[in-house]
Amino acid sequence: MKSHAVAARHVPWQRQQRKARIGLFDRLVNHYFALPAGVVCVQNLYNLLDRSAEPLLAECAAHGVAWVPFFPLGSAFPGAPRVAEHPAVIAAAADLGVTPAQVGLAWLLAHDPGTLLIPGTRSVEHLAENVAAADVLVDAAALSLRVDR
């Protein structure tokens, strides 16, 4: 569905329900029509290995719209690339003294300050590791990390 159609459907609903804000999901690259509707966040596939949504991220940042990357560490689907398994990420993690997953999450947070992360967790220990990623200081080398899938 085109973003102007999304806005056309949601603005009346938003006003009727007295909802202050709307969040959008997926690739609404032509989302300019939706911005006046009070969109506060856009959720889209994005991570260190898949940056295909970079133009949308830039547009969100320019308009103060929060960015919520799904699959921030890559997909759980068989055969899909996983950030924590990429050799360049593993090397950066070793240099920084953290886990590869923490590098992937810290890179997202450092790459754009409007990023809201919702990484999956399997245990309390995994949750603590994900939260600790916010304290990882991603150096210039790790921030400029370029990876080939």
Rg, Å, rounded: 17 Å
Terminal CA distance: 29 Å
Q: Please state the second-level CATH architecture.
A: Alpha-Beta Barrel
- Order the strands across the largest sheet as they lie in space: 1-2-3
Low-confidence stretches: 1-7
Number of strands: 3
What is the number of helices?
A: 6
The named CATH superfamily:
NADP-dependent oxidoreductase domain
What would the CATH topology be? TIM Barrel
Q: Classify the helix fraction into a percent range.
A: 25-40%
Mean pLDDT: 78
Beta-strand residue percentage: 5-15%
Strand count, sense and barrel status of the largest sheet are: 3 strands, parallel
CATH C-level category: Alpha Beta
Based on the structure, what is the oligomeric state of the protein chains? single chain
Secondary-structure-derived class: alpha/beta
